Amino acid sequence: MPESLTLGGRTFKHCQNSTIEHDYVTMDRFNAAGLAVIDMPEGSTPEQFVAELVSRAIRAGQLFPLLACMLIPAELDDTDWTPAIAAQTEAHLRKLTGAEDKQALQGQVAGMLASFFQTGLTTLRTFPKFSEAPASL
Questions:
Q1: SS3 at position 34
Q2: Does 133 reside within a domain?
Q3: What pLDDT, in 10s, does the model give residues 5-43?
Q4: Which of 36, 58, 66, 68 has a CB 3.0–4.6 Å from the CB of 86, allowing a cystine?
């Protein structure tokens, strides 16, 4: 992911050094989105799977709150993140109108989902084919 991202005339960076408050708020929003445990159906393509996760977050009203947990204004230190800063970021993101801004933000969504898997905020469950024999104990 790029070090900074300009959206709607404001520059943001990815918050990487989070406080415990940030961690808990992010986990709460992630759970509210229904993304804590994710079942990847057999036969799903990665594109279909990501589209379903994004749809789930949108239906739960959590896509913008989750993005606001991931991004922080570039002029701030990561540890300056607060729920109030996130609310300001979320409000800004919701009002983007430029095609380039929208495309850039959509690119952030896939990166956000990948980062949640990497940091362990979610559990990905896949199911073996029924024709496969279970491993012996």
A1: coil
A2: no
A3: 999 999 999 998 989 999 999 989 988 998 877 777 788
A4: 68
Residue 32, in any domain of the structure = yes
Residue 120, pLDDT score: 54
Cα distance between residue 86 and residue 62, in whole Å: 13
The C-alpha atoms of residue 48 and residue 72 are separated, in whole angstroms, by: 29
- Distance from C-alpha of 65 to C-alpha of 26, rounded to nearest angstrom: 9
Residues ≥6 apart with Cβ < 8 Å to 23: none
Report if residue 23 sits inside a domain.
Answer: yes
Beta-bridged to residue 73, according to DSSP, are 12
Q: What global pTM score does this model have?
A: 0.78
Tell me whether residue 50 is in a domain.
yes
Contact by Cβ (8 Å): 62, 69? no
Helix (H) or strand (E) holding 53: helix 46-59
Q: How many domains does the chain have?
A: 1
